[in-house]
Amino acid sequence: MACAAVDLAFDHRGRDAQRGRRLRALLVSNWSVETTSARALTAEFLRRQTADAALSRAQALRQTITWLMDGEGYTDPHTNKLAFSYAHPIFWAPFTFVGDGGR
Length: 103
What we know:
The protein has 103 residues and is of the alpha+beta class. It contains three helices and four strands. The protein has a two-stranded antiparallel ribbon. Strands 2-3 form a two-stranded antiparallel ribbon. The longest helix is centred in the middle third of the chain and has 17 residues, at 35-51.
């Protein structure tokens, strides 16, 4: 289960109070991030997890970060020119797992 919300409520057993399901891991950002890179990272991470059941969450995150760093970056939609690269740690370093990084 992936949760994209910032404000989640958990009961004392670590259950998602809204859905009643136990969350084993959360992909979190440790600080505010640029929207397009966060969207790309989250979508690619979920795609990788869905495509390969043998891939652990930690492995999928590592591969996704490498993919983001090596990618083309952000292209300005008005000029169609590369505005900046996502190789800088400000775009990928804040993402970590809390909980089980396994499958």
